[in-house]
Amino acid sequence: MSDGARAVFDGDYLTEHITLGYATTVHAAQGVTVDTCHALLGEGASKAMAYVAMTRGRHTNHAYLYQKLNHEADHHHATPIAAPEIHRLHRGDKYRAAETFRTILANDDRPTTMHAQAEHTPTELLPDIVAETLQRNQQRRSTRRTIWKEHLRTVDAWSTGFERMAAAVARSEVSLDTGGLEL
Question: What is the C-alpha separation between 17 and 152, in angstroms, rounded?
């Protein structure tokens, strides 16, 4: 996150469980594979960021969910325990973790096109030229869909004919030789 907060790992935990390798942002980690990945994800992360973070580890992937404290603004944090901007870990339960993860999955930061946005807008609220463009595009899609269905029916008919011919050859009703087809 860009809020500048830091986490503190206490001495015994640090010596027993943490080996510093390297740290990177989710954006820089795209395409990187490591044995184990530990991702810090805030509730403002997007589902695309969570996907990248949770697929970097070859053997294991762990997510540590960061949640702002109640009544905490972007520029204000609870009282630090030591140096400025160092905060104590607050553990939640599995229900809060699931809720935070659902919030992350609902954050979709993919760019949308004008067509996609307009298709979800009531037609009467759209400018006439946009509504007409959407209608033309829908007609084109419908025509292509009809042509594709007809193509699939033709392929199915050819396939059925081929299967009948193969079955007839297998029953020896038809003989295929180099001279042609004999019935």
Answer: 59
Distances (CA, A) of 88 to 7, 42, 53, 82, 122: 7, 16, 24, 9, 48
CB contact at 8 A, 137 and 115 = yes
- Is 43 part of a structural domain of the chain? yes
The better pLDDT of the pair 93, 3 is held by 93
> Domain check: are 138 and 178 in the same one?
yes
Let me know if residue 113 belongs to a domain: no
C-beta atoms surrounding 101 within 10 Å? 17
Task: Say whether both 171 and 100 belong to one domain.
Answer: no
Cβ atoms within 10 A of the Cβ of 104, count? 19
64 — pLDDT class (breaks 50, 70, 90):
confident
Domain count, the chain: 2
Domain ranges, residue 178:
118-182
Considering just the CA atoms, what is the radius of gyration of the chain in Å?
Answer: 30
Please state whether the predicted TM-score (pTM) of the whole model is above 0.85: no
Measuring CA to CA, which residue among 45, 90, 59, 99 is closest to residue 72? 90
